[in-house]
């Protein structure tokens, strides 16, 4: 799980989480869907989702950068983009209660995936691991992820390990055909001795876990 090999090529992902005012979510999503193309003209968007179950009034979006100099240049360009400021930022900022961002790397044993088809739902799972980093819990965590992949009921999209933000945090993004398909597969997986053994080994290093069912916006590249 160590991120060293990925850091050498510079590519990282900025994960942004916004808490939107409860009465303003519809307005927020409509503005994003209408004007996000102004923002994506500057850098690559991986995906944009809103929460459906497990959290309320949250949106998650992931941006890809070649390196930190690339991000600095993009942020500078955005600061001078009057269309972005006037049509999008000035509209959505009053609708947002809180913003949080993290810098994360894909773990070296995981490439960013895609769903087999459009539609379906995504599951955003955040694990807070014990201090000590991947040297302590990386092997066990990878085994638990692979055990779920091997059941075949779910599709792994990405595993991200934080570099800035709350450390020892791992975000795992999954895709499923539907919430019911995910529920059936998960119940089946938890009766699989291989999954049970792998999870039992990995939870020794777990502090907390949150699962959120998220829905992609029409403007999201991952949908």
TrEMBL record:
Residues 13-111, 122-221 form the NIPSNAP domain. One of its GO terms (cellular component) is mitochondrion. Gene3D superfamilies: 3.30.70.100. GO terms for biological process: mitophagy. Pfam families: NIPSNAP. InterPro entries: Dimeric_a/b-barrel (IPR011008), NIPSNAP (IPR012577), NipSnap_domain (IPR051557). Belongs to the NipSnap family. This is NPS3A protein.
């Amino acid at each position: 799980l160590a991120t060293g090999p990925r850091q050498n090529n510079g590519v990282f992902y900025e994960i942004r989480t916004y808490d939107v005012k409860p009465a303003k979510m519809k307005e927020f999503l409509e503005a994003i869907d209408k004007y996000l193309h102004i923002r994506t003209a500057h850098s690559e968007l991986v995906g944009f989702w809103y929460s459906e179950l497990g959290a309320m009034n949250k949106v998650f979006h992931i941006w890809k950068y070649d390196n930190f100099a690339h991000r600095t240049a993009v942020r500078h360009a955005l600061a001078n983009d009057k269309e972005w400021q006037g049509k999008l930022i000035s509209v959505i900022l009053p609708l947002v209660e809180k913003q949080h961002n993290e810098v994360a790397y894909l773990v070296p044993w995981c490439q960013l995936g895609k769903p087999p088809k459009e539609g379906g739902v995504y599951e955003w799972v955040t694990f807070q691991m014990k201090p000590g980093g991947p040297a302590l819990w990386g092997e066990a965590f990878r085994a638990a992820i692979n055990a779920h992949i091997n059941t075949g009921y779910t599709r792994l999209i990405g595993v991200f390990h934080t570099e800035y933000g709350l450390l020892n945090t791992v975000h795992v993004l999954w895709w499923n055909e539907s919430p019911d398909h995910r529920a059936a597969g998960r119940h089946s997986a938890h009766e699989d001795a291989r999954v049970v053994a792998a999870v039992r080994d990995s939870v020794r290093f777990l502090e907390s876990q949150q699962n959120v069912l998220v829905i992609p916006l029409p403007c999201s590249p991952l949908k």
